[in-house]
Amino acid sequence: MAEENNGKVWFITGTSRGFGRAWAEAALERGDRVAATARDVASLDDLVEKYGDRLFAVQLDVTDREADFAAVRAAHERFGRLDVVVNNAGYGHFGFIEEVTEDEARAQLETNVFGALWVTQAALPFLRAQGSGHIIQVSSIGGITAFPLVGIYNASKWALEGFSQALAQEVASFGIHVTLVEPAAFATDWAGSSSKHSAESPDYADVHRAVAESRKQRNSTPGDAEASAAAILKVVEAEEPPLRVFFGSGPLALAKADYAERIATWEEWQPVAELAQG
Questions:
Q1: Is the domain of 145 the same as that of 229?
Q2: Is 92 exposed, middle or buried (0-12, 13-18, 19+ CB in 10 A)?
Q3: How far is Cα 211 from Cα 148, in angstroms, rounded to an integer?
Q4: Is the dihedral of CA 161, 165, 167, 173 positive or negative?
């Protein structure tokens, strides 16, 4: 039985699996309504059967700007409002920077950056008009630090982080919140069949082996996407939600080490910075 709640309306991209699927189910289970998008809406048939008209299944490729605006508009027409907009659709691209082709780089940015940008732009007029709303951008620990082999993915998430931090300041006076969710490794399909891979250069063979071993150790205990649903509900129910929040126990230590190193380097080189000022 659905729990008592304030009846939020969600718009979630990439709901066929992973975080999108888990969060859509959690919202529906507590009685909320969800517009769920997927490239293949047949993947949502079981949810439609279980939750009926509280689930609005929408076929969507987020790289299609016109389709993004149409999907958001259709969701608003269906439910009358939008409370939580989740930009979850995305994938990981694996390849060293020298190995990534132009088409691969553009495809990564089209989905992970522009897809989120278009959906955000489509939702904002509705959120401004109602004077409330919460935009959830699914970023990554790779959105604040960077790792070899996923440099172009890091670039996409750093871009998402940048425009979202600016956005949060731009829309605060309209009663709209923005949160960047920064997960560690989770047991989703991000590194599986949904990922893309550049052709490996033999010149990097030794580096590939070393990076593979490092990734194996770093991601030895991935998080549970189903368990993350409880965390996202805490975030959307917060009176003052955070601009950034990690999901998983590992990212905080990585972030502390990375930022400590950055600050130490900036301080060491401050005399040069001041020299540049003239």
A1: yes
A2: buried
A3: 7
A4: positive
For 169, phi and psi rounded to 5 degrees?
Answer: -75, -35
Give the active site residues. Answer: 139, 153, 157
- State the virtual CA torsion across 139, 145, 148, 150 in degrees, nearest 10: 10
pLDDT digit string, tens, across residues 24-60: 999 999 999 999 999 999 999 999 999 999 999 999 9
Structural contact between residues 171 and 162, judged by C-beta atoms closer than 8 angstroms: no
The pLDDT tens digits for 90-121 are: 999 999 999 999 999 999 999 999 999 999 99
Nearest-5° Cα angle at 160, 158 to 161 = 65
How far apart are alpha carbons 232 and 278 in whole angstroms?
A: 48
Residue 1 resides in a domain = no
Which residues constitute the domain of residue 261? 254-278
Per the rule left: phi > 0, alpha: psi between -120 and 50, beta: everything else, 87 is: beta
